[in-house]
């Protein structure tokens, strides 16, 4: 082998080494970027799952809050009146029952009978409301 052939062989081996090294380096950087993208995708998926769970929890808490607010409003309305008012409403309901029966006996005052029965039902509903409030205070 001549000196030129030996120099050419060394140059070819060096170029082959550089080519292998450049291929390794480019593959390594591509692998790192692909790994980063995959980890970002996984992190986004986990974040999206957490966000869905938190939204579901928020919806549940909102519904529960609305239910509790409605129950609180109901109790506040019921607590506005006491036992004396409840007894008065029961007395009114009894007198309205008697009036409805009286109007029913005449058979000419159907409208008065209906109105009297409606008012009696409202009075009984109010007494039920007061009864619920009284049971709520006991609990």
Write the SSE topology:
Elements: H1 3-79, H2 83-106, H3 110-138
Helix pairs in contact: 1-3, 2-3
Largest sheet geometry: none
- Let me know the number of strands: 0
How much of the sequence lies in strands comes to: under 5%
Query: Which percent range fits the helix content?
Result: over 70%
Number of alpha- plus pi-helical segments: 3
Number of domains: 2
What general form does the structure show?
Answer: rod-shaped
N-to-C span: 108 Å
What integer value in Å does the Rg equal? 43 Å
Order of helices and strands: HHH
- Average predicted local confidence, pLDDT: 83
Low-pLDDT segments, ≥5 res: none
Helix/strand/pairing class, anyone?
mainly alpha
